[in-house]
Write a structure and sequence with these properties.
CATH superfamily: Hexapeptide repeat proteins
Structural class: alpha/beta
Radius of gyration: 16 Å
Distance between the termini: 15 Å
Number of domains: 1
CATH class: Mainly Beta
Low-confidence stretches: none
Number of strands: 14
Number of helices: 4
Strand content: 15-25%
CATH topology: UDP N-Acetylglucosamine Acyltransferase, domain 1
Order of helices and strands: HHHHEEEEEEEEEEEEEE
CATH architecture: 3 Solenoid
Mean pLDDT: 94
Helix content: 25-40%
Shape: globular
Amino acid sequence: MSNNYEIIQSKKDLLRFIKMDLAVRGIERLPKFYQIRKPIVHYTVLLRKVEYLQNVKHGFLTRFLCKIYQLRLKLLGAKLGFSISPNTFGPGLYLVHWGSIVVSSKARFGSNSRLHSCVNVSGAPVIGENVYLGPGAVITGDISIGNNVTIGANTVVYSSFPDNVTVLGNPARVVKKKA
């Protein structure tokens, strides 16, 4: 189980994260007026900018800009129903729908995570790459989820799972192993 957790540490990283976040949506570059036309994309870009500003050298201007972006992120998150702490997701984040998505500040996701509405991640789980969380999925505790894992709708996960599986139910159990 490989959990390659990345954070944004440079302008180059910021641009790569945003490019990968757009690519999972099939978008090559930010469309005109994306702040109005694509609010979920706008939220993701703001999240990445906050991460960048929090992780780089802290001068007065950087701290000031960070506070402004944090406020904008919080307001847009309240509108969309998202409560996601910075530095929890690797590149390739795909938030599918507006609606309640709550992610603990202690959670760590690898690259290419796809989350549907009503997802709740609490505790300090370490979640691998290429993970799909269906609508209403709940992950709680200090657990580890492998790479290429599908967590079905309304599944409650409070124990660790290996790579390449599909889990369903309450409590979650493996229903399919991927080749």
